[in-house]
Amino acid sequence: MLRELFSELQPVVKRLQVLSDLESTPGYTAPILGAIHRALRDEVEKLRSILIRWEEANLAEWDGVTAEDCDPFDYDLDAEQCVLGAILLDNEAINHALEILAPEDFYYDAHREIYRAMIELTDLPAPVDAITLKDWLKKNGKLESIGGPVYIAELASVVPTASNIAHYAQLVREQGRQGS
Fold it and tell me: What is the Cα–Cα distance from 15 to 148, expressed in whole angstroms?
């Protein structure tokens, strides 16, 4: 339970950082700032909910758990985001990813769900981009659990180039296998 809560916590904190950065950027109009403030408030509520569940979790779950079991740095968040972002930038990139990765190789639940959705879209066949991905996740009731449209947009912006997807995918796979 605690590992699942920790996994939920990571993308919420990341989204809070992004929204906070947006809020401090000069030049936004009042309606945009209002939307950012509403999104921040929503993320804080998610964070509060996770922390309450964390506190209520049975402390006995810590028996036998070492610090290494909880080390978030065993997994490369950037590599996972770059794999997903590369696919959003270049639909052909998913073919390279599929040769290397299964959804289970992703550490973060949200990333597993996003990758599964990308595979489903490819099987339709439909283009995999921020719009089709958002629509598919929304239709299947998973959009908010992965971080919403803001997180999808962030994924497309974090990857420097889609051409390095094989390298990113290999990093994710190696770390996914070590964590298993």
Answer: 10
Q: What's the pLDDT band for 69 if we cut at 50, 70, 90?
A: low
Torsion of Cα atoms, 40 then 32 then 29 then 22, to 10° = 50
Cα distances from 120 to residues 2, 101, 126, 169, in angstroms, run 30, 15, 9, 18
For residues 74-84, b (16+ Cβ closer than 10 Å) or e, as one string?
A: ebbbebbbbbb
pLDDT value at 110 more than 80: yes
Say which CATH class 72-179 falls into.
mainly alpha
- Neighbouring C-alpha atoms within 13 Å toward the C-beta of 144: 6
Q: Which helix (H) or strand (E) holds 86?
A: helix 77-89
pTM more than 0.70: no
- Residues 94-108 have pLDDT tens digits of 999 999 999 999 988
DSSP 13-41: HHHHHHHHHHHTSTT--HHHHHHHHHHHH
Distance, CA of 19 to CA of 14 (rounded, Å): 9
